[in-house]
Amino acid sequence: MQLKGKAHLFGNDVNTDDIIASKYKSSTTDMLEMSKYLMGNIDPDFVRRIAPGDFIVAGSNFGCGSSRETAPRVIKLAGLSAVLAKGFARIFFRNAINVGLPVVECDTGGIEAGDRLEVDLTAGLVRNLTKGTEGKVAPLPAVMLELLSDGGLSEHFKKHGTFHLQSIEKGK
């Protein structure tokens, strides 16, 4: 699974209320509508600068705070292809995979705003096409890749009618 897009940088400790402010969660239940306010607490113009396939690139502890799935859902609905960070809050990481949003733990120190990136989730590679550099990261387990490829846990159940992972049956 390969993803390409432009990097949008954020720092450490980006919490779920920074990803989507609670005032928007209380004013609508329409997730697509909420996605228009993605990262609005930090950067009110963020959604106007992103293009489909782009990446959020952050420091450590991305997605800390509350455990709602709303945060990774609005990132995905805004059209971003993945989040790359030095580290993730455990529950955010799990929620992201469950909703079908790829998350990659890697050294983001050499990535600058606007860099063109290519991420190969299967091979575990992050290429900075702007700088001509490449970094190896631990590839996501086959189970997670399968869930991401199906669009997340709910979509996986809709597709198969049950929890049915080829990667487990094949012993991967």
Structure description:
The protein has 172 residues and is of the alpha/beta class. The chain folds into 2 domains: 139 residues, Alpha-Beta Barrel (Aconitase, domain 4), CATH 3.20.19; 32 residues, no CATH class. The protein is built from 9 helices and 7 strands; from the N terminus they run E-H-H-H-H-E-H-E-H-E-E-E-E-H-H-H. A 7-stranded mixed beta sheet has the order 4-3-2-1-5-6-7. Helix 6 links the parallel strand 3 and strand 4. Helix 5 crosses helix 6. The radius of gyration is 16 Å and the shape is globular.
Q: Remind me, CATH topology of the largest domain?
A: Aconitase, domain 4
- Name the overall outline: globular
CATH homologous superfamily annotation of the largest domain: Aconitase, domain 4
What's the gyration radius in Å? 16 Å
Model regions low in confidence, pLDDT < 50 over at least 5 residues: none
Largest sheet: 7 strands, mixed
Q: What is the rounded distance between the termini? A: 17 Å
Please work out how many helical segments DSSP would assign: 9
Q: What is the annotated CATH architecture of the largest domain?
A: Alpha-Beta Barrel
Decide which structural class fits the backbone. Answer: alpha/beta
> Spatial order of the strands in the main sheet?
4-3-2-1-5-6-7
Number of strands: 7
Oligomeric state as shown? single chain
Work out the strand percent. Answer: 15-25%
- The residue-averaged pLDDT reads 89
